[in-house]
């Protein structure tokens, strides 16, 4: 008899816990549903004012205003970056951090239409969806804050406003200054053309400018008196291109000549090339970067010029955390993907006709949630440095039409209309529900930290940037605003 009574009590307790859990989820999702229009307007405001890294004054203010209105305490100008911020809602308990990005890209100005339509010639655009990124994080944090208040829960929410992800790596300076030292777990996301919450790795990267100084002269009348800085850049590029045969297959090396002279009949006395070197192993990145530097030095020696190296970013790859990723995948699966209405489906079909590929996925991909896996993404993010100091998790949602590549006008177009907003709210719900799980389940945080320590065993994080200051001028010359 006692056994059956205790069994009934156990069943009742389980149903009670399940009921509470359902109630918590319903509160958070209802809150976000009710605020979808408001946050869509915030995302659109940032989209209409695309600002490059370290110049995101309007964008960061839009997010800060929402956070202040919700009752967060906001600090600005952290780590020497005027557009950075930290918004805190402190009710004790576990500390859950969120990462907000809001910088745009140069040269991707585009209207929210399914054909190429430039708004500002040479202007900026949100080709990586950071107008959605930062807004979803703020929406998620505000929803969690209101859930904490409604349920008298002890927890602290910290939202980190991180400038210049698209070159400049603002998060690294915040990590270096210890701003994440008291955080138990960090949550973030990124726009994409599909929905997934994998335990993700990516490439580490070094990025910088190689500035060559020569001697100007008349290219025809007295060429012997000139020393071409552009020749030095071209010699360097040739040597690095030959180096590609002799690096690991997981490597990525990109460059662009940002300055190469002003007139063909004037020997250029100044030329600049920007390089990015990537590899999943940060040690390999360091080694390749030194080889690139030696190529630059050799080019300067051979052309009788002088070279200066200016590092603008150095970031680690992502350190995965499967404990957190599996929790986030569970929540993403519960939230579900993005469903198009008739107008959005027509927009998506039209934009797919502009893709430069024969492999166009079905629109139904936006509705699906991809199976969980431990996977590698060959690009880079300064979230990597955060993941080396605190357990970190992220997800992708379908803010872009399936088949869309990042950093394209097609991505900009979707980021400024309802397809992007729907994906943004999928992300906001998933992040908020994951934050809720971490707050209610201390064992989950404990397990995530245990996995974090195990993955870090034998590794010691040291910022690749050394003691350099944030390169606030990084995008200044490229900035064209509406």
Automatic annotation (TrEMBL):
InterPro entries: Amidohydrolase (IPR017439), Aminobenzoyl-glu_utiliz_pB (IPR017145), Bact_exopeptidase_dim_dom (IPR036264), Peptidase_M20 (IPR002933), Peptidase_M20/M20A_hydrolases (IPR052030), Peptidase_M20_dimer (IPR011650). GO terms for cellular component: cytoplasm. GO terms for biological process: folic acid catabolic process. Pfam families: M20_dimer (PF07687), Peptidase_M20 (PF01546). Keywords: Hydrolase. SUPFAM superfamilies: Bacterial exopeptidase dimerisation domain, Zn-dependent exopeptidases. Residues 206-298 form the Peptidase M20 dimerisation domain. One of its GO terms (molecular function) is para-aminobenzoyl-glutamate hydrolase activity. PANTHER family: PEPTIDASE M20 (PTHR30575), XAA-ARG DIPEPTIDASE (PTHR30575:SF0). NCBIfam families: amidohydrolases (TIGR01891). This is Aminobenzoyl-glutamate utilization protein B. It comes from Aquiflexum balticum DSM 16537.
């Amino acid at each position: 008899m006692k056994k059956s009574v205790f069994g009934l009590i156990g069943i009742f307790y389980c149903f009670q816990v399940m009921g509470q859990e359902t109630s918590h989820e319903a509160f958070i999702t209802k809150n976000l549903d009710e605020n979808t229009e408001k946050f869509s307007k915030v995302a659109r405001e940032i989209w209409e004012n695309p600002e490059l890294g370290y110049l995101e004054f309007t964008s960061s203010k839009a997010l800060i205003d929402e956070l202040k209105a919700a009752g967060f305490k906001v600090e600005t100008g952290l780590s020497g970056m005027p557009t950075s911020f930290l918004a805190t809602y402190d009710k004790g308990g576990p500390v859950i951090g969120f990462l907000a990005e809001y910088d745009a890209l140069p040269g991707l100005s585009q209207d929210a239409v399914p054909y190429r339509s430039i708004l500002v010639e040479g202007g900026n655009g949100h080709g990586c969806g950071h107008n959605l990124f930062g807004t979803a994080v703020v929406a998620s944090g505000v929803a969690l804050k209101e859930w904490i208040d409604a349920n008298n829960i002890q927890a602290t929410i910290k939202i980190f406003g991180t400038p210049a992800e698209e070159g400049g790596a603002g998060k690294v300076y915040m990590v270096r200054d210890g701003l994440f030292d008291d955080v138990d777990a960090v949550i973030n996301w990124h726009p994409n053309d599909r929905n997934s919450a994998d335990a993700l790795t990516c490439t580490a990267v070094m990025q910088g400018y190689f500035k060559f100084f020569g001697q100007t002269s008349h290219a025809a009348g007295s060429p012997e008196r000139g020393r071409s800085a552009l020749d030095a850049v071209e010699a360097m590029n040739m040597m690095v291109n030959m180096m590609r045969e002799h690096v690991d297959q997981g490597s990525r090396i990109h460059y662009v000549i940002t300055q190469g002279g002003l007139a063909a009949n004037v020997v250029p006395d100044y030329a600049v090339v920007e390089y990015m070197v990537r590899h999943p192993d940060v040690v390999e990145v360091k080694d390749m970067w030194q080889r690139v530097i030696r190529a630059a030095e050799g080019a300067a020696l051979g052309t009788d010029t002088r070279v200066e190296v200016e590092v603008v970013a150095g970031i680690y790859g992502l350190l995965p955390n499967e404990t957190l990723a599996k929790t986030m995948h569970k929540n993403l699966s519960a939230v579900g993907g993005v469903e198009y209405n008739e107008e959005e489906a027509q927009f998506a079909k039209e934009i797919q006709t502009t893709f430069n590929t024969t492999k166009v996925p079905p629109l139904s991909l936006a509705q699906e949630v991809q199976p969980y896996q431990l996977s590698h993404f060959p690009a880079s993010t300064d979230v990597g440095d955060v993941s080396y100091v605190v357990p970190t998790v992220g997800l992708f949602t379908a803010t872009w039409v399936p088949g869309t590549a990042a950093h394209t006008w097609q991505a900009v177009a979707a980021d400024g209309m309802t397809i992007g907003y729907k994906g943004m709210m999928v992300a906001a719900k998933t992040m908020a529900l994951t934050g809720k799980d971490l707050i209610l389940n201390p064992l989950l945080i404990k397990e995530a930290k245990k996995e974090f320590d195990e993955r870090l065993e034998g590794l010691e994080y040291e910022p690749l940037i050394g003691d350099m200051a944030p390169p606030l001028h990084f995008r200044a010359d490229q900035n064209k605003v509406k």
